[in-house]
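hey m, so remember when u said the tokens were messed up on ur end? i reran from scratch. heres the input so u can diff it against urs
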Amino acid sequence: MEDVNEYRNTEELAEGSEINASKNQQEDGKIFIGGLSWDTSKKDLTECLSRFGEVVDCTVKTDPVTGRSRGFGFVLFKDAARVDKVLEPKEHKLDGKLIDPKRAKALKGKNPPKRFLWVA
């Protein structure tokens, strides 16, 4: 059996694969980032927050139809203590906008809302 840690390099993983793997589970190193600019990329977010510690994975959530940013994302740090370091400063700015980092919380017992497309 191959060692999973061999594939921890974020360049080799699909965007958000580490974050999505822990969906609906408590992940102490995961942080929610709200208030992102529509132009903020995964690379921008990673670079901004990597000054607080090693980023294992990062994703900016997008609309599946338009591909446009939904204005939020998630970052997963290797060391869970890095989340506290991100939350210490009162303000964070990225791409000219004030962003809103918060400790990510698991959606226990909840399924994501189902979206329906009505065609007339």
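this time it looks ok to me. The helical segments are 17-21, 42-49, 81-87. if urs says something different then somethings off w ur setup not the seq
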